[in-house]
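Example record

One chain of 269 residues, shown exactly as stored in the release files.
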Amino acid sequence: MKRVKELLDTLPGKWDPRKEQPEDYEPRNPPASDDKDIIMFDTRVTTNGSITDTFWVFIEGITCNETPDTKQHDGLAINPVTVATDGSCLENGRLDAKAGAGVFFGENDHRNSSLRLPNHLYRIEADRIMQTPLEQSNQTGEVVAIKFATEISPLDEELMIETDSKYAQTQLTSNVQANEDKGYIGVKNRELLKATVVILRKRKQGTLFKWVKGHNGHDGNEAADKLAGVGAEKESTDNICIRRVPALEITGAKLSTMTQALAYQAIRE
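Predicted structure tokens for this chain:
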């Protein structure tokens, strides 16, 4: 037994069966809402299924032996936060398009923000900074707004994000597992989406995405829309940075989902 303990002690925490792992506390089923317009973000990272579901290809970056921490705080949130987000784009679809992001927490709230999207994201990895192209569109503006709003909101309070973008709502909730299973191959704005998912996984209380009809008199949406328009018209762009969090990132693609066409597309990308 002493020798067994010595061998187990050599394992990183992520692979040590004696240590608490996400599967020990993550629910079997994703969180659900009774409101059809609300989708709750699923923080789970555990792979369920057969052993064939655990093999991945096209893995990126260095090996990470850190145990992911996706445990949510117990009990009800004391001060739930509601924020409205929106994206805007001037000359949408053209080479000279300029996109903006709007974030609205409430009247005269210092966190209200207008951002002008740059043409590149800055991806920060260990000892280097890399540029990744960023599309100028309403959709990217919306996702940038959500990313920014999540980053500046308390980690330990429930967050309700009100958005008029079905694209942003589904890509950051319902589609996350499917996107990760296929390694985001063929998915537009994948670096931005992946970075936003990581930020959402860091939160310790629930995150809910509520779809609201745009330009329909919703106070938060109307205010966020105005802020996004101001952002798109700014003379200078804002820096949008992505910081790697290897323990919360799922890289590569699930082998069981891979087809010849998908593998070829991954190589070309």
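Notes: The chain has one domain: 78-268.
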